[in-house]
């Protein structure tokens, strides 16, 4: 659909919407309103914020559907309350709110897009990645990154890999969640298939954090393994789960990783990819394009189409490639097999 002038201006200013949501979350506005209706002055007094600015922010959030505004019955002015979805997802322990600290980093990373498009990989290679990956060495930001990764896994990737709509994985007795992050995808699959021996593989810092913040009910059929995707010998298993990992890499590195996975798999084993995918014409879905730009900025990575996934898998020896499209178009699953 062609864009109108108003559409273009709205898109140019769209960044303010995410800034508003992040600010409201950090100031505690959503948490305060979860306790009941309140006027902007009551909210500002409770949170020690500027009254006029608080009112403007709450009006913005109401116009965007995050808050509900109505005239108070006692004529004390307009009162606001959370929408049901805001209370569910954006209050302190809501899954989406756990992403907020890292979303602030994504907003900051966005300033690099100009240089990446102009200079490509050369710009990425000169970046001080250690300073941008503080979560690897700072306890507080490490926990924030873990919580964000956990939220994404619980909202999208764990259900995609383990729900009734996913592929039947009961034939596999041993599995490895490669780049397992928070561990929640592995936990969900291991609970669904209690006879499957599951290994979570990731960098040492990530494994340490996953263990530190792991839930009390981690399945007994789950173990952990520290290593490097491209250096460490991968475990010899029946199934590799690669969730939200392949899109981090260039085609060259993604093919190297798939080649290593293929070599480590037992004959007849499979590789299960869980990722956001483009439509074949790359005209959608919108979430895939947002993810694609984010991967470009952060890693010089890319979102791919089903055709590209199929070609990469077949190039590395896999056969019988099958796809399963998720309802929300965020975590599609692809499974491919190593011949017996």
Question: Given the C-alpha coordinates, what overall shape results?
Answer: globular
SSE string, helices as H and strands as E: HHHHHEEHHHHHHEHEHEEHEEHEHEE
Averaging pLDDT over every residue, what do you get? 86
Number of helices: 16
- Estimate percent helicity: 40-55%
Strand content: 15-25%
Q: Could you tell me how far the N terminus lies from the C terminus, measured between alpha carbons in angstroms?
A: 48 Å
Q: What would you call the structural class?
A: alpha/beta
- Spans where pLDDT lies below 50 across 5 or more residues: 128-137
Q: Count of DSSP E strands?
A: 11
Quick recap:
With 340 residues, the chain is of the alpha/beta class. The chain has helices spanning 5-12, 15-27, 29-33, 40-47, 51-63, 84-90, 100-109, 113-119, 121-125, 129-132, 139-162, 184-192, 204-212, 251-264, 286-299, 306-315, and strands spanning 67-71, 78-82, 174-178, 197-202, 222-226, 239-243, 270-275, 277-278, 304-305, 319-324, 332-337. Helix content is 47%, strand content 16%.
What does this structure look like?
The protein is of the alpha/beta class. The chain has helices at 5-12, 15-27, 29-33, 40-47, 51-63, 84-90, 100-109, 113-119, 121-125, 129-132, 139-162, 184-192, 204-212, 251-264, 286-299, 306-315; strands spanning 67-71, 78-82, 174-178, 197-202, 222-226, 239-243, 270-275, 277-278, 304-305, 319-324, 332-337. Strands 5-4-3-6-7-11-10 form a 7-stranded mixed beta sheet, with helices on both faces. β4, α13 and β5 (222-226) form a beta-alpha-beta unit. The longest helix has 24 residues, at 139-162. It is globular and about 75 Å long.
